[in-house]
Amino acid sequence: MKILLVDDSAVLLKMLKKSIQRIAEDRVRIETCLSASEAEKILREEEYDLLVTDIVMPKKSGVELIRTIRKTDNNIKICVYSSLRDQETLDELDKLNISLLILKPGVVPEIAKKILDLVLIL
Predict the structure, then answer these.
(1) In whole angstroms, what is the distance from residue 42 CA to residue 15 CA?
(2) How far from each other are the two terminal CA atoms of the chain, in whole angstroms?
(3) Using CA atoms, how far apart are residues 45 and 56, in angstroms rounded to an integer?
(4) CA 38-93-72 angle, 5° bins
(5) Using CA atoms, how far apart are residues 108 and 63, in angstroms rounded to an integer?
(6) InterPro entries annotated for this entry (predicted)?
(7) Integer Cα distance of 117 and 28 in angstroms
(8) Segments making up each domain of the chain, as ranges
(9) Least packed by Cβ within 10 Å: which of 64, 78, 85, 109?
(10) What is the pLDDT of residues 48-87, one digit of tens each?
């Protein structure tokens, strides 16, 4: 299983990656990136089973990232992990066929478990 984590917070990415690895052990490969643009480049070069992305990021939002991905890939599972709660964005995410929405803040090990529930039988 391959997971791509996207967030503009390097600290959060590091904590989430460690927590997922602790639970999943060697059953997943996790890559991280700090921007939607970097994620798009990675996803053009390699297939992933799951994308976990924040919504509010500099330059390009997670919603824009998801829109771009959905133009070519309806199979990748997408988990949104964000503090954004406006109804317009939530409605758009619903149309973009996301698999899971997790609202920040949260306890990182619990979030990691929810994320892994999308791709692994724990």
Answers:
(1) 21
(2) 13
(3) 24
(4) 55
(5) 22
(6) Bact_response_regulator, CheY-like_superfamily, Sig_transdc_resp-reg_receiver
(7) 12
(8) 2-117
(9) 85
(10) 999 999 998 999 999 999 999 998 877 899 999 888 778 8
